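Our preliminary data section would be incomplete without showing what the modeling component actually yields. Below, a chain of 404 amino acids is followed by its predicted structure, encoded as tokens that our downstream tools consume directly.
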Amino acid sequence: MATTVNQVYVYKGLDKKGAKVEGEVTSSSPSLAKAQLIKQGIRTKNIKKKPKPLFGGKGKAVKPLDIALFTRQMATMMKAGVPLVQSFEIVAGGTEKPQLASLVRTIKDEVASGTGFATALRKHPKYFDDLFCNLVESGEQSGALETMLDRIATYKEKTEQLKAKIKKAMTYPIAVMVVAIVVTGILLVKVVPQFAETFSSFGADLPAFTLFVLGLSEWAQAHWFKVLIGIGVGIFAFSKAKEKSLAFRIALDRLTLRLPIVGVIVYQSIIARYARTLSTTFAAGVPLIEALTSVAGATGNYIYEQAVLRIRDEVSTGTQLNVAMDKTKLFPPMAVQMTTIGEESGALDDMLDKAANYYEEQVDNLVDNLTTLLEPMIMSVLGILVGGLMIAMYLPIFQIGQAV
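Predicted structure:
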């Protein structure tokens, strides 16, 4: 059975009032595209397949931050009273990413043909997870879609900000260390051999440190290609093991939490995500048991994912949320206490929101402190690596100078 491939078509025509309109529509054929436009009240005069761009290829991929921006724009449009289908077209026309524009227009066409918003989103699981779709569906059913989109947008923005902070903490030291390793490798392979040729004419014993560096240089010259292949294979094996092996993922998540400094940042970010996700879903009217199911996958750590599922099971038997959280011994006393206050006052979503804000601020402060702490340490490591190599090469020269 042949598969149907959707194409983007460019059209010009007249709307119900006789005004000229033009735009894009996604369909499997020109005739079906015309039928979709007729349902929207548009009589087409000209329709043709959208030409592919001469340069630029497929364009930039759609990222989670783009989805957050899309959600915020949709919430703003709907709050301003713009109809849903027209909001899609405005958002698609305002984006500079062709792939995002195509995605939005595809959803628009599905909604315009009578498909529910949440149902249309579920056809694109790569960009919209179950939590996103469930919240949109809740908004559609309650008749408060614009309010729900606003909450989802806030949730996505806060989540992406938190991810950016974690990346900031990890990227800087890793990037500097990679540069240090590359520079050291270049020195060993290209610079040190030049000194070795000079030392061969000295006819004197070389210092032990210099001999060690020369030996390291010879090894690097002989095996540098194998080292690069080994690094590549190691990275590939690591990513595959993380993807395929549950035991490896559990061990990695447990190790990450135990790392000095970095483990504290990861721990605080997990608590922040837990509180933010549960606050958003509970405020949307999702029952607590269902909300906890969504929260488990949002923690981003297998240890806490299983803990949240145990909390869900406890709550389903009548145990209070704060008691179930305390039993896991994985949540800080402050988070448990704020949950207790929220349950007793009937404002659980509000207290969880405040808890999320607090732990997000903690992550922000920890990242700033980590960067400040690591800068002198990284500079020291760079100095030792590069400076040590230079000292090893100049020691024999110094010895000859002293002998003369």
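Strands lie at 7-14, 20-27, 43-49. The first strand starts at residue 7 and ends at 14. Preliminary results of this kind motivate Aim 1 of the renewal.
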